[in-house]
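A quick aside before the break. I want you to see a complete sequence-to-structure record at least once, exactly as it would be stored in a machine-readable document. Don't worry about memorizing anything.
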Amino acid sequence: MSDDFNMSMRKFLKQVGVTSQQAIEEGMRNAGSTEGKSYSAKMVLTVDGLDIEHVVTGKIEGA
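That is the input. The structure line, written in tokens, reads:
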């Protein structure tokens, strides 16, 4: 793949990571006490024009 492609993909993934972390942190703050709680999380990636649906699931532990 080209350097331009790699750079644009890395930029997109960095934006996804940073903004997703901010959204989760805000949700945790708004939820009040989350200590000892566990939250199921799911991220779905789709790309217009490509036949892609990538799903990642996991757990986020409260603090």
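Two observations worth writing down. The first strand starts at residue 38 and ends at 46. The chain is about 45% helix and 30% strand. We'll return to this after the break.
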